[in-house]
Structure formats: C-alpha cells, structure tokens
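Standup notes
- DV: blocked on the single-chain target, sequence here:
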Amino acid sequence: MNFMQVSSRVRMKVEVLSFVLVFLLVLSIAVCSSASGATYYVSPPPSGSDANPGTEAQPWLTIQKAADTMVAGDTVLIMAGTYQERVAPKNSGSSGNYITYASYTGDTVTIDGSAMSLSLVDQDGLFVVDNKSYIIISGLTIKNARPNDNNNGIYVDSSSYITIEKNYTYNTVSSGIGVWDSDHITIDGNEVELACNNGEQECITVSTTDIFEIKNNHVHHSGPGTIGGEGIDAKDGSTNGKIYKNHVHHINRLGIYVDSWDKLTSQIEVYQNVVHDCANDGFTLAAESGGLLENIKIYNNIAYNNKYNGINISANGEAIYSHPMKNIYVVNNTFYSNGDSTWGGGVLIENPEADDVVIRNNICSQNGIAQVQVEASGNNLTIDHNLIDGYRGYATETYGTDYVEGDPLFISTSGADFHLQQSSPAIDKGSPTDAPADDYDGSLRPYGAGYDIGAYEYGSVTATTTIVSTITTTTNGPCSAEEIYGDDSEEIKILRSLRDEVLGEIPEGQELIKLYYEWSPAIVKAMDEDERFKEDIKEMVNGLLMLFEDDE
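- DV (later): unblocked, structure below
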C-alpha cells in the first residue's frame, strides 16, 4: 500500500489512527494517575536535618534517610549540593508504584565518594540496589567511587524492574553503572566518563541479566584499561536485551562488547550505535570461556577511527576453552577508517567455532589492512551484498558475493556524516534478506527501488520525520506500539507509514504525534508490569488496524 497516494479513505484513516493514538494517550494518563505515594525532600545544611519531617520546607539531610523511609510509590527529590554518603535503598517498590530517587528540578545533585572507602571484599558502589525491585534512579551525579577494583558508581545486584536514567558518573574505579544477576533493567540517557579507572569490568556492565535495554547513553574517555574498561558489555548469560542509540568513544579498550563467558548468552540486538576512536575494536563478539553466544543481531551501527576493527567475530579467551557462536547477523552497518597499515580493518572473522554467521549490506570503506577479512570461521558463513572501498589484497581478505566496489560517497567523512550522497553506488544495491525495517535515523527501508547498503537509507528527510526523531531523542522513551508488536513487524511498518505520511502532513496530527511520544513511556511501563494488560491493548489496536487494509 502506498500511503503517498491519497485515496477516498484517507480522511477515515486519519480519524482512525487519531483514535488509536488518543486511546493510548488516555490510557497512559489513567495509568500515571493511578500511582500514589508521598514526596520527600533532601537538602544539604543548613536547611537539611534528618530530624525534620522531610517536607520541602523542612527537608532531610541525607539521601539514606529517604532510602530507609520510602515505601512503594514514594519519591524523594534531592536538592542541589554534594552528598558524601553511600546510598542503599531499604525497600522495594511494587508494580505501578516505583520508588524514585531524583534530583530536584534543575538542580545538580552530587554523590561524592572521595572521602570514603567502599568495600574491598566484593562488588560495591556509591548507590547500591541489592535484591530490590521497582526503583528509579534519575538525574544524579555520582563520582569518585573508590578505592578498590570492583567499586562502582551505581551497582545493581539480584534486582528487578530497575531504571537508571539521566545520571552522570565520573571517576569510578570499576563500572560507572554495573548490573548483575537481575532482570527487567533499563539504563537510559546516562553519561559515563572516566569509568574503569584502573579497575575491573566495563564502563557499563550488564551481566547474567534477562530483559534489559541499554540506550541513549554517552560513554567516553574511560580509564587506562589496565585490567578492564570496555565501553558497554552485555555478558555472562545475559539474554533478551537491546543495546541501541549509544555514543561510545575514546575508550582505552573496545567500544561495545557482547561476551557469553561460560553461560548461554542469546537474543541480543545491537543497533543504531556510534562507536569511534577506541583503542581496540569498535564492536566485538566473544565466547571467552565456553558459553554459547547465540542469536545476536548487529545492525544500523557506525564504527570509525577505531584502532583495530570495526567489528570482530572473535576467538577471544584462553585456548583451553571452546568459543562457540551460532546465528550471528551483521547487517547494514557502516565501517570506516578502522585499523591502520599494520593491523585492523572493517570486518574480521577469526573464530573457527562461529557457525551461521551473516555479513550483509555493510559498507566497508578505507579500513586498515582489509575491508572484510576471514582468518577462521565455522560452518555456513555468508558474506554478500557489501560495499567494498579499498580492497587491499591481504591474504585472508574477501569480497564475498554480490558485492559493490567503489567510493560510497559519504556526505562528509571529516565531519563524521556517513549519510549517502545522491549518486552513491550503495543506493538500492543491498539485499532485502534480513535487512532491518528502518535505518540509523529511523527512516523506513527500503526507499526507492531497493534496500541501500550501510547504516543509512538514502532519501529525503521530511519535516515530520525530523519532528518524530527529535521527540523520541528528547523523551528518551520507548514506543508503546513497538512494545506491542516489536521493531520489525508489519503492524509497525503500517503505523510508521501512517505516522509519517498521513498524520505528519497536518499540524493537528503532528501535535498528536508529539503527545504520543511524551506519554508512551508510561504505557510501556504498565505493559511491562502486566502481560494481560498488554494483550488487551493489542487486541484493541488489532481491531482498529483492520480498517487500514487496502481497498483492493
């Protein structure tokens, strides 16, 4: 169905889609209104005292006082100042009633560990969530977590439904944010700087965790990387996760890592990330200690100016262990200027136990000694429809099949703008097989006669697309429709087309789109907590979508 061709049913379609969005908006308002709880306040001296009632006029002195007091549904708003304390919530929230730790509007709140020593024995942090659930940590600055190898900024262990958002961590010996043995974790919109400052783990670590999202984070300028320090790592039995829209750079190890270690690690998607200027690979997959790494999708990412490879399907780990991988998809990424004249390149495959690997629709341009290099591989390696720019003739380099060779004609490599120019040979030359439904910008694929190669789909960017992209980035929120149907479904394709090409063409529709993205996180949160609720909404929307079927 071509939504650009206006039919006699367009008015009805506008009205019905408007009803769908209004229905979800009203529902989300009802969900938000149902939550109840007290709001407490914390402030430094002279106004703060733990003998106070914790009101705005008479706030508490310490965040820990709030952590000892709050119950499900409560919120603490922390006023500007520096708090030299370790915070550990005593209680959990409940479904629909999170306990929230947040900065007071517009205030800079710093938890500073420079005057204290965290635990030497085990993992520890300045903000510790241990065996708790339904907690939000929002808008805090957490710095100087020290002095031991496993001292984190924010540390979560054995917990569920935890949201860590819009925080800034700085100078942590171990991870800025570390999550272990947990589930339903969201790490969203944080800045992590100078993490792993001579400590273990990674700048953002998610280990042995099921159902997680690591998104919209800025991870940069890590510590020296002596015994740890990769940018983002999902590892050691983590499953059902998404790593997306992160900016990772100037890391003294590799940028984004997915490593099974010694446990089955599976169903992880890595997309719409930018990784550059790291002292190792941009992206690396590994099975270091014998655990199977399975069903991993890497798509719509950009890696440039990294010391070694854009991406490495690696054999990392000691030789005494096996390194099994299966069903690895590297599709529609852009790898530019990784490696140098002595080592490194666009794509490296060096694991003889990596089976069913697909390398497709990637731009590999002006990388070091090879654009696509196969040192060793397992069964059923597929390399096709990639654009090769700068074939070096290295001993293990390959073009693959159905390749395109030539300058991809990026807009500006010096400005790190890897959109395609109108005459790029990458346009319409990709394969539709396994191609994502949209591109790095969220624009629909395909645009034109076929799928483009690389992270961007060439085509004019409408004002509506810009509006929606801006709203999504600004709110850092999930899309409730994607929560129902998934990123790649036919229903999502229909709704996105209607959003961009029908509602987006009228001012009233654009305002409705804005409201939808503002309220969508509340709907998603409610659906995450109640599967029956999610199914009821899906049934309702399915009925409404039937009205969008073609007239044919």
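- Follow-up: Helices lie at 10-34, 63-69, 463-475, 480-485, 490-501, 507-529, 531-545.
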